[in-house]
């Protein structure tokens, strides 16, 4: 198959959509083209002054190739294809990218422009289904962690907290202490399958979006292919036009209409229960249990941190992993994890992190008024060298929360009763 070439389009054909920490997204608005119409272009970014990526050999495998292969070969076995965007590699061109930067850099938020820029030396990018354009409205939610850990592998110091307050709520408290913006959103409400609680979660997401002027990344709204901001009257009018019967831009009214439309869309979709199940079954030991098992198996050489000595898996290993996950995993006794399965558990934790970090896009079906399509995006492979950082962050977040004296009660509606933890003392 010949790969599409970006130089077959003009930089002017692409408009800025949004960006995250590592990537930036543009939408195709040029003349009809089989390969590019209804697609977005996802490009990698690089920090100002960084030269890391400039040395990439164009023949070597680049992260986007492996990201696409990861979705095609691994994620697609766990998530039905109807909930996944199509992804293909596109061949880039440095001069073309430089022209795009000149044209569109001004559309990026100032704080992003100060820290990074499009990596113009990349030879490949990703073309994905455009879930934002071609529809009057689209909503992007980053749901985050949808479960409470089981007690089995938690230490006496953390068990009471971690089984009462969810990871996201503890992290929010930690971030607020560091000067970050607060939110009352709790993922366990969103994942609850209970309409009242889903509406509560959506109301909190809306309030966070509104009060942060659209800068929190848990909710993004798009109207007519562009990101909507609460202080932009035109955006709010378009939102009101789509969401409300009377087109009123009254904030309470808009919030109510937003939560009603989205609550129904989420209740009708199997996507959130699927994500929660994947997250919780893949992160079955909690990072604490994983760390203990790793220490047992790495004979004292783990001083550099969890997973530090472990090479990243090849794609073939991920394929084998999924086979085990779909078969043996369910019959193993995870309360007494076998040290022989340490690599499996490490990979499972990485994959769980992929599902904790993804986003969902909800947009109206073109064929059926009042019903919505839900698509899961941003499913990147995580690397073993992140594990040590996550373990330290987990400890920091819990210690902070403990010292804050607060104890929010987050209810995990899919949690199965705690049993089989009695053998815990034998291996702790
Ligand atoms: Zn919570």
Could you explain the architecture of this structure?
The structure is a single chain. Helices cover 40% and strands 14% of the residues. With 428 residues, it is α+β, with helices and mostly antiparallel strands. It folds into two domains: 125 residues, Phosphorylase Kinase, domain 1 (2-Layer Sandwich); 293 residues, no CATH class. A hairpin with a 3-residue loop joins strand 1 and strand 2. Helix 1 packs parallel to helix 12 and helix 5 packs across helix 14. The protein is globular. The termini are far apart. The C terminus is likely disordered. Zinc ion binds next to helix 5.
What are the key terms here?
428 residues; five-stranded antiparallel sheet; Phosphorylase Kinase, domain 1; disordered C terminus; 15 helices; alpha+beta; binds zinc ion; six-stranded antiparallel sheet
The parts where pLDDT drops under 50 for at least 5 residues are 53-61, 422-428
Number of domain units: 2
Mean pLDDT across all residues, rounded?
Answer: 90
Structural class call reads alpha+beta
Output the helix-strand order: EEEHEHHEEEHHHHEEHHHHHHEEHH
Chemical compounds bound to the protein: zinc ion
Helix count equals 15
How many strands, which pairing sense, and closed or not: the largest β-sheet? 6 strands, antiparallel
N/C terminus separation: 53 Å
Query: Assembly type of the shown chains?
Result: single chain
- CA gyration radius, whole angstroms: 22 Å
* Proportion of residues in helical segments: 40-55%
């Amino acid at each position: 198959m010949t790969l599409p070439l970006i130089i077959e389009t003009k930089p002017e054909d692409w408009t800025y959509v949004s960006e995250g920490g590592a990537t930036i997204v543009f939408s195709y608005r040029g003349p009809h083209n089989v390969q590019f119409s209804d697609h977005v272009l996802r490009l990698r970014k690089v920090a100002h002054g960084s030269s890391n990526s400039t040395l990439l050999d164009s023949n070597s495998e680049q992260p986007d190739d492996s990201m696409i292969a990861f979705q095609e070969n691994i994620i697609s076995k766990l998530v039905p294809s109807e909930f996944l965007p199509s992804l293909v590699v596109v061949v880039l061109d440095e001069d073309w990218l430089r022209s795009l930067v000149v044209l569109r850099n001004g559309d990026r938020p100032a704080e992003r422009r100060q820290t990074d820029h499009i990596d113009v030396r990349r030879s490949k990018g990703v073309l994905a289904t455009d879930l934002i354009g071609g529809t009057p409205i689209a909503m992007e939610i980053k749901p985050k962690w949808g479960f409470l850990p089981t007690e089995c592998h938690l230490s006496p110091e953390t068990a009471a907290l971690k089984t009462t307050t969810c990871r996201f709520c503890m992290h929010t408290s930690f971030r607020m202490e560091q000067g970050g913006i607060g939110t009352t959103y709790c993922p366990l409400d969103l994942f609850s399958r209970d309409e009242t609680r889903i509406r509560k979660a959506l109301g909190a997401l809306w309030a966070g979006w509104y009060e942060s002027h659209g800068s929190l990344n848990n909710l993004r709204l798009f109207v007519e292919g562009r990101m909507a901001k609460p202080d932009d009257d035109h955006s709010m009018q378009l939102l009101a036009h789509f969401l409300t019967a009377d087109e009123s831009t009254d904030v309470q009214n808009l919030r109510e209409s937003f939560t009603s439309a989205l609550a129904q869309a989420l209740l009708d979709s199997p996507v959130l229960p699927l994500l929660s199940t994947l997250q919780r079954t893949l992160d079955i030991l909690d990072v604490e249990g994983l760390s203990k098992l790793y220490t047992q198996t790495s004979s004292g050489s783990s001083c550099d941190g969890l997973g530090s000595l472990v090479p990243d898996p090849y794609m073939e290993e991920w394929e084998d992993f999924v086979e085990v996950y779909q078969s043996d995993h369910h019959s193993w006794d995870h309360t007494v994890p076998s040290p022989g399965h340490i690599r499996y558990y490490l990979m499972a934790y990485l994959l769980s992190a992929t599902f904790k970090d993804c986003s969902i896009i909800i947009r109206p079906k073109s064929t059926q008024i009042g019903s919505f399509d839900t698509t899961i995006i941003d499913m990147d492979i995580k690397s073993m060298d992140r594990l040590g950082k996550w373990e330290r962050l987990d400890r920091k977040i819990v210690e902070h929360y403990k010292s804050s004296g607060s104890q929010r009660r987050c209810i995990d509606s899919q949690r199965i009763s705690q049993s089989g933890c009695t053998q815990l003392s034998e291996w702790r």
